[in-house]
Amino acid sequence: MAGPYLKPFNLSVGASGVIEHAGATTAGDVTDGVVASVALASHKAQAVNAMSSGSVPDAAVAQLERNKQLVVSGGGAQSVTRRDLDELRAGIRAGIRADIRADISADIDAAVSGLFQQMSAYNHNQNARLQNSQAGDSKQYQALVREKPGSVGLGAAPPAVFPKTKDDLTTITNDNITGLAQHYGEEFAACATVVERRRALARFMGVQW
Predict the structure, then answer these.
(1) pTM over 0.85, yes/no
(2) Which tens digits make up the pLDDT trace of 107-133?
(3) Which of 85, 104, 133 is the last residue of a domain?
C-alpha cells in the first residue's frame, strides 16, 4: 500500500519549541490550511537557525523545503500574511525561557522581518506562476522576483532579459539564462543543452512547455 501524499512533520527544537505541520493522505487533501502550515514550518526552521545556527538539522530543513515545494506544486498560490508571521514570532518567543527572551528579542524580530520579505516574494511568485500557467501564446508572462536570500535583495525584479512572451522563452540564449540563474540563485540545468535550459526556466516560471 502506498504511503500518504504528505507525511505530518514534528520536530522538537529545545527552547524554541516544536516545528510541525499537518499531513495529507492524497493530493486532494491538501487544503489552504495544509499549505500554510507547511510553508510556515519551513520558514520557522529557517528563523530558528538564523537565531542559533545548527538548531535544526540540515536534513530537516531540506525535508521541509521539499514538503513546501510538493504542496505548492499541487495546488494554487497560498497567501501567507503579516498576521501569520506575527503568530510565528509569538510562538517562537513563547517557547523561550523568560530570562533569555530579552537578549534575543531583536534577533527574533530581524529573523521574522526577513521571513516576511521572503514570504512576500514567495506569494508574488506563486501568483505569477499561476497566471503564467494559464497564459496563451499571445499573452505576456508575469515576471518573478528574487525569492532566495543571498547577494541579490529579496523581492528584486529580474534583469530585462526575463522572457515576456513565448517567443522570448523559446529563443532566449544560454548566456541570458545563466544571467537569470545568477539573479534567482538557481541553475536552470546548468550543464544541459540550451533547449533543456529553456525548459527548466519555463518550469521555474510556471509555463506549460
Answers:
(1) no
(2) 666 666 666 777 788 889 988 999 999
(3) 133
